[in-house]
Write a structure and sequence with these properties.
The complex is a heterotrimer. By secondary structure, chain A is mainly β. Chain A is built from two helices and eleven strands; from the N terminus they run αββαβββββββββ. Chain A is extended and about 60 Å long. The N and C termini of chain A lie far apart (67 Å). Chain B has one domain: OB fold (Dihydrolipoamide Acetyltransferase, E2P) (Beta Barrel). Chain B has one helix and ten strands; from the N terminus they run ββαββββββββ. Classes of the chains: A mainly beta, B mainly beta, C alpha/beta. Chains B and C meet through strand 2 and helix 1 of B and helix 1 and strand 5 of C.
Chain lengths: 189, 158, 387
């Protein structure tokens, strides 16, 4: 068989076909809203964000300090063991300079680009990154490997959300900071 | 050890709210376009018929779903039908009570194997019966857009 | 393994278009009917049907599998929809393979459909909810972000430039000029790609495949039936699929381990020891141009970080030593997600039969593979075929 020997289906419509009413349509806007339970791990993660801290969860068997925190370890498939605070600093693993909004609409000429990034958080296991935004930086100066620090909302404005961190901004390397062991949260809340 | 911690204070479990903020614009397809154009322009219903399987489709299909034969001739089957089955709806979409219950029926069109789900209009609830003949009530031609809403419902055959 | 041999014996496809008038059912029927006609079968001959289609949120139809069933020839038969995200189209023949290899079916129709145009304002919006609802969605991500982030990491790790990557888009869009289903086939240059609108740096518009409507179908048969139906069966000799977690930000974005895991499973089954030598032709998933390179490396068709050089050297061109995406791929033919994967399977089927027309690669290829995947950088599906 050859594709060329068949008359293929699929009738292409142009935007003008819709505008000029050459094709009939019907519309539907789903009016569905969801309330996703946060669960134990993410519930605590959000509560700690509200308090201005980032908390991780440890699996002793795999020796991993995990972000976002999770109540079971997906590698060894057993419950994770304890909570641990990590720092609010980290390293840019990768970044983008986005001129497109979530729905593929373009950002206006006066709107600055969005700067999404994967940030490896200090204190978590190597490679444990979260997606967040970058700010207070000229996009041209961005580099993979750059040290960054969280810029938080004012305590009274925080709601217990990942957006309680406004963005991460580059930290100017004045001196090498010694890595202190992050404080342990200890036990149950 | 336990993954689940016993919840004693029901204000503790938190949740995150959101939505899927999209909307949809559906085309009716090759057969659907013909069907709704005809409702709009001529105020009547079209069917397709498979002579291999002796089955007819309303709304029409461009293919027979039994044997996959292409069906490309459309038959005008009129707007008369009969009630195959019906139900009464006492609630609105948001759960509130309707003042007058809506009658929803499956209407078999003509002597086809197909039919439409639509409202019954102009009947007292007591007089509705399965097997009862009905006729489509369409909006005036000038208000028809080519959609299922061009049909107001099915009413009595006078 | 005690499994029966399974062959592809027929194929069908629609044009891939930005917005089709046909409903998803009608597209499915067009592709399925063509697949049956291509091997002189009727729907009566089909024992079982499998259907692949990506999120319900594209078509705006819940229970899309059930909705599409009549167009896919599933009425009154054992029928099942499968969905593994971007990997769906290459999982489709795997799902059909289960039915035939196990002995449950002698002939299985495999259909893949996508109608993305229904979703407004843009199907990209439906991707918002593939991100974690609590820890990621509040940042309002778009799908392009995750690809842009991965591409940047890939470029940095191996020292690859945007121009190196743009060659893939140029090659695939040109290859697609010979594909009768093609939506965005064109002759462009590397400069055209680099000068096209920057969407999310480093991703420009011409680095990305389009949103599409389309369907594809194949017919699978057991060995005994296949030999009766055709002189040129194409055998499914290896299948592999593998998934990683949805914690995409916590893994190495420079290398698609999930593709390697799936490939190793398929290679083991097909007895392939040196994929770069034994596989003559490949259709890796190319929703973005860098992804073709990334996936070639995950498939172990070349060392890590070296796929761009092979492209620059012409090795992956249609007349090169290892033709990659001779169909034109998602970048050129179009990307109705599930149907794209099956389009790739069909391309390898035709190439191994010597029936790819103007797209035919020289040198009588005997062994090929198709791959799809991704989701949140986590899914791999691989099928190895031999003539």
């Amino acid at each position: 068989m050859k594709l060329e020997d068949f008359e293929l289906g699929g009738t292409h419509l142009k935007s003008s076909d819709f505008k000029q009413g050459k094709v009939l349509t019907t519309e539907w806007e789903p009016n569905l809203k969801y309330a996703w339970d946060n669960g134990v791990a993410i519930g605590r993660y959000l509560a700690e964000l509200k308090a201005g801290r980032i908390i991780a969860r440890i699996c002793h068997k795999c020796d991993r300090i995990m972000l976002p925190p999770r109540m079971f370890c997906e590698l060894c498939f057993r419950p994770t063991d304890e909570w641990m605070y990590v720092k609010d600093t980290g390293v840019i693993n990768t970044f983008s300079i986005a001129k497109v909004n979530w729905d593929a609409s373009r950002r206006g000429p006066k709107e600055p680009p969005l700067l999404p990034a994967v940030i490896e958080i200090d204190g978590a296991s190597e490679g444990m990154g979260i997606m967040h935004m970058l700010g207070e930086v000229n996009p041209k100066d961005l580099k993979i490997g750059m040290k960054v620090k969280a810029v938080w909302k004012k305590p009274e404005d925080r709601t217990g959300s990942i957006t309680d961190i406004l963005y991460f901004k580059p930290v100017t390397a004045k001196r090498k900071t010694k890595t202190k062991a992050a404080p342990k949260a200890g036990g149950k809340r | 050890m336990a993954i689940t911690e016993k919840i004693t204070d029901t204000t503790v479990p938190t949740f995150w709210e959101g939505a899927i903020p999209v909307r949809y614009v559906y085309t009716f397809g090759l057969a659907g376009e013909k069907f709704f154009r005809t409702v709009k322009d001529k105020g009547t219903f079209l069917a397709t018929y498979c002579d291999e399987c002796d089955i007819s489709f309303v709304p029409p299909k461009v293919y027979c779903d039994r044997c996959f034969k292409e069906l490309d001739s459309y038959i005008d089957v009129g707007t008369l039908g009969y009630v195959e089955t019906f139900t009464l709806s006492f609630r609105n979409m948001d759960g509130s009570e309707k003042e007058i219950p809506k009658i929803l029926a499956m209407v078999r069109i003509g002597d086809t194997d197909g039919g439409l789900i639509h409202y019954l209009e102009g009947f007292e609830i007591d007089e509705i019966a399965i097997g009862m003949p009905v006729k489509a009530v369409l909006k005036p031609k000038s208000q028809r857009k080519g959609s299922i809403e061009d049909i107001i419902g099915f009413g009595p055959v006078r | 393994m005690g499994m029966r041999k399974v062959a592809i014996v027929g194929a069908g496809i629609t044009k891939f278009v930005r917005r089709a008038q046909e409903t998803g059912k009608e597209l499915s029927w067009q592709a399925s009917k063509m697949a049956l006609e291509s091997c002189d079968l009727t729907l009566d001959d089909i024992d079982m049907v499998t259907l692949g289609t990506a999120p319900d949120a594209f078509d705006g139809v819940h229970m899309k599998g059930e909705y599409l069933a009549d167009g896919a020839g599933g009425i009154g038969k054992p029928y099942m929809r499968h969905f593994v995200g971007g990997g769906t189209g290459v999982f489709s023949p795997i799902h059909g393979w289960f039915h035939v290899a196990s002995g449950m079916a002698d002939i299985c129709l495999v259909v893949a459909e996508e109608k993305m145009s229904t979703c407004h304002p843009h199907p990209a919006g439906a991707f918002l909810t593939i991100f974690d609802h609590t820890t990621e969605q509040p940042l309002m991500p778009t799908l392009i972000w995750i690809f842009a982030l991965e591409m940047n990491r890939y470029m940095q790790t191996y020292g690859i430039s945007k121009a190196d990557i743009a060659q893939v888009s140029v090659k695939n869009k040109r290859n697609a000029m010979d594909h009768p289903s093609a939506q965005v086939a064109e002759k462009i240059t590397v400069e055209d790609v680099l000068n096209s609108e920057t969407l999310c740096w480093p991703v420009n518009r011409l680095d990305i495949s389009p949103a599409s409507d389309g369907a594809a179908a194949i017919v699978l048969a057991s060995e005994r039936v296949a030999r009766r139906l055709t002189d040129k069966p194409v055998w499914i000799d290896g299948i592999g699929h593998s998934i990683d977690t949805a914690y995409w930000a916590t893994r190495d974005l420079a290398y698609p381990r999930y593709v390697e895991t799936a490939a190793r499973m398929a290679y083991d089954m097909a007895g392939i020891k040196e994929p770069d030598k034994e596989i003559h032709i490949a259709e890796p998933y190319d929703p973005f141009d860098y992804k073709e390179l990334h996936h070639m490396e995950g498939l172990m068709l070349c060392p890590r970080g070296k796929a761009a050089q092979l492209t620059a050297d012409g090795v992956t061109a249609r007349d090169g030593n290892m033709p990659i995406c001779p169909s034109g791929g998602a970048l050129g033919v179009g990307n109705p997600i599930a149907a794209t994967g099956l389009m790739k399977i069909i391309e390898i089927f035709l190439q191994l039969r010597g029936e790819a027309g103007k797209r035919q690669v020289p040198g009588d290829p005997r062994c090929g593979l198709a791959q799809a995947g991704v989701d949140l950088m986590q899914m791999g599906t691989v099928v190895v075929m031999r003539s």
